[in-house]
Each structure stands twice: as C-alpha cells, then as structure tokens.
Amino acid sequence: MPLDRSHYLTDAPKLWRALDEADRAELGPVPQGRQTCYRCELPTDEPVIVDVQHGGSGAGGTVYACPRHARTYGRDVVAEAAIRRRALDRGRTR
Q: Which residues of 9-27 are buried (b: 16+ CB within 10 A; e: fewer)?
C-alpha cells in the first residue's frame, strides 16, 4: 500500500498472505500435524518434507525437518519427484 500522511502501515492480512505464499513456494506444501525434525529432533509446527524413504517390501517413511534445517538435508532426486507426485495427486499445486 502506498505511504502517505494518514497511512504508513501495510495491510496486515495482505502481507500475511504474501509471506505465506512466498514461504510455500520456497518450502513446498505444509504437511498436516506436528512433526519431529530429523536433525534437531524437536517438534515443529511448520514441518517440511525433505525425504521419502522407500521400503523394499512395504511402505517406507517420510522424513521431516524444521524450516531451519530443511536446507541442510542432502537432496535425493527420486524422493523429490515422489513428493511432487504426491502433492499433485492430493491437489496441492503451486
């Protein structure tokens, strides 16, 4: 919002939506519920999926990280493709 004498703050809901959109664009979709970070082992309300482990004879697991440690996790191209496919299947697209 433009600044003038009577208006010097931005519209908080618009700012919140813009920051949320930027966050999701950078970190991906939000998993439902609280998860534990793989690195600091603390629960986080903002879990980021960093890996999907594949099981040889059954279901694998999903590895979560807090936003701080998500960038430090080693990327796996196959896991990233699986995460994107799951997001598309659930209708969560950018």
A: eeeeeeeeeeeeeeeeeeb
